[in-house]
Design brief:
Layout (H helix, E strand, L loop, with lengths): L3 H13 L15 E8 L1 E5 L2 E10 L4 E5 L4 E6 L6 E2 L4 E7 L1 H29 L5 H23 L6 E5 L4 E6 L6 E2 L4 E7 L3 E7 L12 E6 L6 E5 L2 E6 L6 E7 L12 E7 L3 E7 L4 E2 L4 E7 L2 E13 L2 E5 L7 E5 L9 E4 L2
Parallel strand pairs: 1-24
Antiparallel strand pairs: 1-23, 2-18, 3-12, 3-17, 4-11, 5-7, 5-10, 6-9, 7-8, 9-11, 12-16, 13-14, 13-17, 15-16, 18-22, 19-20, 20-21, 21-22
Helix pairs in contact: 2-3
Length: 348
């Protein structure tokens, strides 16, 4: 029989040393780990390709305004980037003296051809000229009038000419300055349609095969994240842009969504690639590192370790590929404490 004093001394020592005495497991009892589980789901997922770019005028809606004849720029009313309305004054051109002289000479040629025709017609009545000579005089007058009309359409009949905007738009390029002398057909400026903008995005050449016209794109401003535009790819270019060394992808901006976007601003495009069926699980269910990945499934109350390959991630879910099927139960919490074949119990 144990002495009561000895027993009390033993418990006093264990308490002083911070030692607790836990009850031993009964014979045959197996340790288990408390876990939480989820079900493997099969669903359609798609990858998002991120591309940076810039907001530009639609190249199909840009007008090049050129000067029909030589002269001197007397006044320029617009500036680069300015928004203008149809009919607005753009610039004033003073006709060059030699161009004006060309018109005056054409005018004199018409007068001479007209008098010559009248003279030939009188001579024909007096039988001093032939019908062929009269026909030649008719042709000379027609040619002279045609030349005069062409010069008049080019504005050479006016000493000063004002170039006006043919449509609403934005000046995206200005090639002339006040006082500059210009030749005929000189490009003065580029005018882009105000309501027709595109997103020019750059993608890597290896990603081009995964894209096609009609692929959905969500466009946001780099500096104003709250601005979001839904569009689709319109064009895929077939060469690298020499400035960016990326392939250009064009997506139009719907007219009703351009009010908060500024021409030339930097943008970000999220391109939604074609979805495919996949097995997905919560991200916390996948363990491992860059070389190996695995999950734990539940079979007959025990954890079974299964190697998998990971695919696309969407939010808190990740695609897995391996000997697993939809409907299987996988462990999402407590899996760090497990080893293959360990008994588990589900948390409540």
């Amino acid at each position: 029989m144990q002495c009561p004093k000895t027993s009390n001394l033993f418990f006093a020592l264990t308490a002083a040393l911070g030692i607790t005495i836990a009850p031993l497991l009964h014979a045959g009892e197996i340790a288990s780990v408390e876990v939480k589980t989820a079900t493997v789901v099969k669903k359609q997922i798609s990858e998002t390709l991120v591309a940076y770019g810039v907001l530009e005028p639609d190249p199909d809606q840009i007008l090049s305004l050129s000067l029909a004849h030589a002269g001197r720029i007397n006044h320029v009313w617009v500036r680069l980037g300015q928004r203008i309305k149809r009919g607005s004054k753009l610039l004033q051109l003073i006709t060059a003296p030699d161009a004006r002289m060309q018109y005056l000479q054409a005018q004199s040629a018409v007068d001479f051809a007209s008098r010559e025709l009248e003279r030939r017609q009188r001579l024909l009545k007096e039988q001093l000229a032939t019908k062929a000579q009269v026909d030649a005089a008719h042709k000379a007058l027609r040619d002279a009038r045609a030349l005069l009309d062409a010069l008049r359409k080019r504005g050479l009949n006016r000493m000063k000419e004002i170039l006006r905007a043919p449509m609403d738009g934005i000046i995206t390029q200005l090639d002339v300055t006040q006082g500059q002398r210009v030749q005929a057909n000189t490009s003065a400026m580029l005018l882009a349609a105000e309501k027709r903008l595109i997103a020019r995005l750059g993608v890597e050449a290896e990603d081009l095969g995964r894209l096609k016209p009609g692929t959905p794109v969500t466009i946001t401003s780099v500096f104003v994240p709250g601005v979001k535009v839904e569009s689709r790819i319109r064009e895929l270019h077939a060469m690298l842009n020499p400035r960016t060394h990326l392939v250009d992808v064009l997506s139009p901006i719907p007219e009703q969504q351009i009010d908060h976007l500024v021409l030339g601003s930097r943008i970000l495009g999220h391109i939604q690639l074609t979805p495919h069926p996949a097995l997905v699980v919560p991200r916390s269910a996948v363990l491992g590192d860059d070389q190996i990945a695995f999950v734990y499934t539940v079979r007959q109350g025990k954890a079974r370790k299964i190697k998998v390959q990971t695919g696309l991630e969407q939010g808190d879910e990740i695609e897995i590929i391996g000997p697993i099927k939809a409907g299987d139960t996988i462990i999402t919490l407590g899996n760090y404490e497990l080893s293959d074949g360990m008994a588990i119990r589900e948390a409540r």
